[in-house]
């Protein structure tokens, strides 16, 4: 049976949920696994033993690992493009100055929040350190669990928001309540806006009351208005796995009278198989499974995927190797067929010799196809081998790029000709950028092809194009 499987790693626990991928989705397995004071190797062994003892099958399952919101950096940025490939290139060039990490040491993915009529896009950029992504990946790889995607808890909450009935067109909030922490996620029907994790949950509410968590709610709301993400919030969904959010809903309603409060008790509202029993840590203690439920019950894959680049590259190399082996088998089979045909044809009459000639012709055509595919594989391998050269190039461009200059296109054609197209509000900075490229050891024959002024809703912008030649690595040295 097909299923969606979700794991979420927390402090000392791993939450696990499996949902059948059928017409009427329902939970077929749910648990909270204790990993307190365990090493990564021990956690992998615990997961491996758990999978074997519960006979969990991943053969036909989409497996997603959820990373806590606190592990990620979220930046909302605006770019002068609506093309996803262009936006990704601009993010990689410009996000480096906004995070405390080198761009090579992080994993990045994004979701477009809104598009304007004059060609701009507001984008939510999610960033996590590469070592954190590899840390989670290695735990599940050692446990022999085939992970197909990694995302953050905020995305799961947004997917859960989408599943609520009678959604308003206005901004809504998922307020996820856990035992020792909570997460506030601002959502629209088509995308999420922003999110924030706060170290305050049921345990702290029981000891200290609602004052601190209400302050955190007001702070989140105020920050969203300052960032112009939302003018007003229509509905707040108080989500928990236990029936313990009623009093908090009353306190939030006191702060904003026109706010609609919806309580969502997941242990009572989610469809569960008859063979499944809710763990007490969920129904009694209130351990949250909101992010897991959002992903598990969603038809779509999470829009943010943070699987490490090194893993993606290794997978692609593995695919290339398999293709090479398959091509090799075809070559051997063609040669064997040709040899047999020649041996038999020697003793055949003229009609059979003509058939042999046709078989030889077909074998040559097949061999040519195999040769072309091998050439493509060699091209891919050459591209992978020289990937660091492109990284050096983008780092050099980012170093030279003035603050008010945005690049929308980077093209490298045959002959090592580099073409840059961009936008700036200052022609002086375009000239400065050209001069910096002239002075750089990486470029030669730097030409400013054109500078065109265009009028937008926010003023005049200069559109420009610069072409140059890339110097060889030896030449740079």
How many H/I helical runs? 15
**CATH class assignment of the largest domain:** Alpha Beta
Could you give the distance between the termini? 59 Å
Low-confidence stretches: none
Which shape, going by the Cα principal axes?
Answer: flat
- Please identify the structural class as seen in this structure: alpha+beta
Portion in helices? 40-55%
Mean pLDDT: 85
The domain tally reads 3
Rounded to an integer in angstroms, the radius of gyration calculated over CA atoms is: 28 Å
- Under CATH, the topology of the largest domain is which? Nucleotidyltransferase, domain 5
Beta-strand fraction estimate: 25-35%
The main β sheet shows up as:
5 strands, mixed
* Number of E-state strands: 17
Strand order of the largest sheet: 3-2-1-4-8
Defining key terms:
single chain, 477 residues, alpha+beta, Nucleotidyltransferase, domain 5, Gyrase A, domain 2, 5-stranded mixed β-sheet, 15 helices
């Amino acid at each position: 049976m097909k299923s969606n499987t979700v794991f979420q790693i927390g402090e000392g626990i791993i939450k696990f949920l499996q949902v059948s991928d059928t017409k009427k989705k329902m939970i077929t397995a749910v648990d909270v696994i204790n990993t307190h004071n365990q090493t990564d190797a021990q956690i992998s062994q615990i997961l491996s033993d758990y999978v074997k003892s519960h006979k969990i099958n991943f053969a036909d399952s989409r497996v997603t690992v959820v990373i806590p919101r606190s592990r990620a950096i979220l930046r909302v940025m605006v770019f002068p493009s609506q093309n996803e490939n262009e936006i990704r290139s601009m993010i990689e060039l410009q996000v480096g100055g906004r995070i405390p990490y080198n761009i090579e040491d992080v994993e990045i993915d994004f979701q477009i929040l809104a598009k304007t009529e004059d060609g701009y896009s507001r984008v939510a950029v999610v960033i996590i350190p590469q070592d954190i992504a590899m840390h989670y990946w290695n735990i599940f790889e050692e446990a022999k669990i085939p992970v197909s995607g990694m995302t953050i808890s905020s995305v799961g909450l947004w997917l859960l928001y989408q599943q609520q009935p009678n959604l308003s067109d206005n901004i809504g909030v998922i307020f996820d309540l856990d035992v020792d922490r909570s997460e506030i996620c601002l959502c629209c029907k088509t995308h999420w806006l922003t999110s924030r994790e706060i170290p305050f949950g049921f345990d702290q509410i029981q000891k200290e009351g609602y004052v601190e968590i209400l302050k955190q709610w007001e702070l989140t709301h105020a920050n969203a208005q300052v960032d112009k993400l939302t003018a007003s919030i229509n509905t707040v969904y108080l989500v928990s796995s236990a029936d313990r959010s009623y009093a908090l809903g009353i306190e939030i309603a006191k702060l904003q009278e026109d706010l609609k409060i919806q309580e969502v008790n997941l242990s009572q509202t989610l469809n569960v198989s008859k063979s499944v029993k809710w763990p007490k840590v969920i129904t009694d203690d209130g351990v949250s499974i909101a992010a897991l439920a959002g992903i598990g019950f969603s038809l779509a894959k999470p829009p943010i995927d943070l699987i490490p680049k090194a893993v993606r590259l290794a997978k692609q190399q593995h695919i290339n190797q398999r293709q090479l082996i398959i091509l090799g088998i075809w070559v051997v089979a063609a040669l064997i067929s040709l040899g047999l045909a020649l041996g038999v044809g020697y003793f055949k009459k003229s009609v059979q010799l003509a058939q042999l000639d046709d078989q030889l012709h077909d074998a040559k055509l097949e061999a040519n196809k195999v040769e072309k595919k091998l050439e493509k594989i060699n091209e891919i391998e050459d591209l992978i081998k020289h990937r660091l050269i492109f990284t050096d190039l983008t780092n050099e461009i980012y170093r030279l790029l003035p603050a008010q200059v945005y690049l929308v296109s980077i093209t490298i054609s045959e002959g090592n000709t580099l073409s840059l197209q961009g936008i700036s509000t200052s022609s002086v900075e375009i000239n400065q950028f050209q001069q910096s490229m002239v002075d750089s050891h990486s470029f030669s024959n730097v030409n400013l092809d054109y500078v065109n002024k265009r009028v937008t809703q926010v003023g005049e912008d200069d559109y420009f194009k610069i072409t140059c030649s890339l110097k060889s690595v030896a030449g740079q040295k």
